[in-house]
Write the structure tokens for this entry.
Amino acid sequence: MPRVKCPKCGKVETILKSGFVRGLQRYYCKECIYHFTLIKKGRYRNSAFDKKRQTTIIDIAKAVGVSASTVSRALKDHEDIGIRTKALVKQAAVELDYQPNLLAQSFNRRETHVIGVVVPDIENPFFASVLSGIQHTASASGYKVMIYQSNESHKTEAANIQTIMNNWIDGLLICHSKETQTFEHLKLQMKKGIPIIHFDRICEETKTSKVLLDNVIGSEKIVTHLLNEGCRRIAVIAGPQHLYITRKRLEGYKQALKKANIELDEKWISYTDFTKPAIHSAIDNWLMEKTRPEAIFCISDNSAILTMMYLKHLNIKIPEDICVAGFGNDYTGTIIEPALTTYNPRPFKVGETAAKLFFEQVIGGDNFHIKTITIEGELIIRSSSLKRSYGRSDGKE
Amino acid sequence: MPRVKCPKCGKVETILKSGFVRGLQRYYCKECIYHFTLIKKGRYRNSAFDKKRQTTIIDIAKAVGVSASTVSRALKDHEDIGIRTKALVKQAAVELDYQPNLLAQSFNRRETHVIGVVVPDIENPFFASVLSGIQHTASASGYKVMIYQSNESHKTEAANIQTIMNNWIDGLLICHSKETQTFEHLKLQMKKGIPIIHFDRICEETKTSKVLLDNVIGSEKIVTHLLNEGCRRIAVIAGPQHLYITRKRLEGYKQALKKANIELDEKWISYTDFTKPAIHSAIDNWLMEKTRPEAIFCISDNSAILTMMYLKHLNIKIPEDICVAGFGNDYTGTIIEPALTTYNPRPFKVGETAAKLFFEQVIGGDNFHIKTITIEGELIIRSSSLKRSYGRSDGKE
DNA sequence: TTTTATATCTTAAACGTTTGCGATACTATT
DNA sequence: AATAGTATCGCAAACGTTTAAGATATAAAA
């Protein structure tokens, strides 16, 4: 029999073995009816937790000789606290290098002051700019921004939302992936009452605030400009057919034609996946027509760049032979020659506005009614479309 | 005297008024020696907290008829829990739509699984790509990413770090702003024991892991390439003199010259702030020399683009008259004509590596020794520098 | 002197989860 | 029958902060 003393009565004779728990020999004192093991781990005495321990309000409270609640109130200048106490507390806070545990605060208040953002791709300049706008606005109000990219995958998007929504964020700003066509993953989360704001590629089925690009008007402006330059046969490099921006920008295209009393010819519309081969083959097809297109309107700047490079490769002159226009105002459009006519959707402002809508919803609470805001963009005319006035100035930089 | 009953003894006669607290009439029962007010607010009964309440493990515990700790363990398949109980708990969790409160978990564990990232500017493609690499790697390990941009301001950077470090993040990945020249704000935080990883613009004074671009070797490769093309007088558009990348890339420039036995001429080095006017004036000055430079090496792609556009504007042929090379492999370099010779620092990999270093440090704990990893980049030769072999293929796309 | 008012402080519960360790009900062994 | 072993569970504390509401001291009023 081992010489083990009972921690309660101190006796040795009454101790019996009693199996094992978690690999440790267990003992049992007959007299005290008390089970115990010898080695104690002590959760908060050994581990890595120790190092992470910082000054808390309790430390301050002890130092000053008041209660923790007084410290809490003093630090936020609550009226109930005497001016002398406040001073003492604040001084002690500085001396002890007190830093509030924001995690504890958030936990207590059930508010993290974090905005979650899900974008398809951070490296896309448009989204980078939106992100910047969000970050800027959030920061100004003391909010943090957590980002996720879906990589244009519906699955990743759904998984991201699932994780992030579990108490981490106060609101979600989202632009759906190209793949996303069902929105059950979002609707599930909406029950939690966390504000959701859509931007750019929105979801039409949910009662959420939305920030839109003026896709229709913008496209209409571009196409109208091309018409004004004397182009009649205007081809379109569109995206996948189900994609929101494809539908909307095509709508603008059609409107412009209608207003100009030009009949729509479906052969001038090519649905692509924005890849180089798809675009090349679309152009090849058009060039085989007996009458070539006079202009190509590309739904995105990136495809416009690809289009221009291919046309140049084919020794087709821009804009003399074919005008080209894009949509998006990517930086590359100013570099390529001739400079690309495009439409600036003001992505930074899109981000700003989305963040502002979030704040409105937070402040408004139940009184807030969802809004849809369309950001007015800006037609940017550059050489790539200036057929009629070829040779005149490049427009503004 | 008001007809107020004592909540304790129920008597009315013994009640006295006793001033006001928080705007409410206060009463006092002589017999019970008990102060009280009439209206009770009840913190967790009325407010917005209610709506945010979700299913907790306690709810599950009640439903199944076990304790909360059992639920906690069952959900993570702890061996102590019986297989039947586990099944019951998991089933209840699904039925009640239980979502763990990640905030509570983090608070308890003192671990958020969030990586903080501070970059100067999200819209800069280099940083966007780094960010993407970080996000990718973090996501794969179940970590979230919180971003901050300093907007190249030291003050903003310091403020960001201050906020974010208070328990919000498990680690900090940072690229300093151009302005940042003192690092006290960082050193202060290092005491907390949170891993800090530097990338790109590092801090040489701190004992932190770092991820570097191969600035020196990369620049040397570029300049050597220019030398091989027959350029002898190679001018440099540098950045501000104190900037880390300026110093390093200049070092590579000098090394290349030295190896080629060409004497360094300081007049070919121009320190700019990367703005258009500064670059233009640097070029103007060089062109006034009796012997013009044969090549211009720009410390960054963006300044290379500006340089090329200005040279073209001056009707100087690239590369016949002057070769141009950049550093960074921005997308625009593939668009401009002639395409820009540059160096790909592999920003995505930089981000990936920074994140990996963080994980190594977390896993290694005290055993981890800080590392400095240099990411090997890739020389990308395009037309803008192909003087000798002008007219030959464009190199790989 | 008794009652009322004011200013300032304390107490304790609550947030949701984790976890050390004791408790209980068995079965197996001696 | 006494003791030892095993499987499975519960208790309670701990994390750091906030906050409702009671407590106390002191001054003012009746």
Q: What stands out?
A: Residues 21-22, 24, 26, 33-37, 40-43, 66-70, 73, 79-82, 85, 104, 107-110, 167 of chain B lie near DNA strand D (CB under 10 Å from a C1'). Confidence is low (pLDDT under 50) at residues 391-397 of chain B. The radius of gyration of chain B is 32 Å. The CA atoms of residues 182 and 352 of chain B lie 27 Å apart.
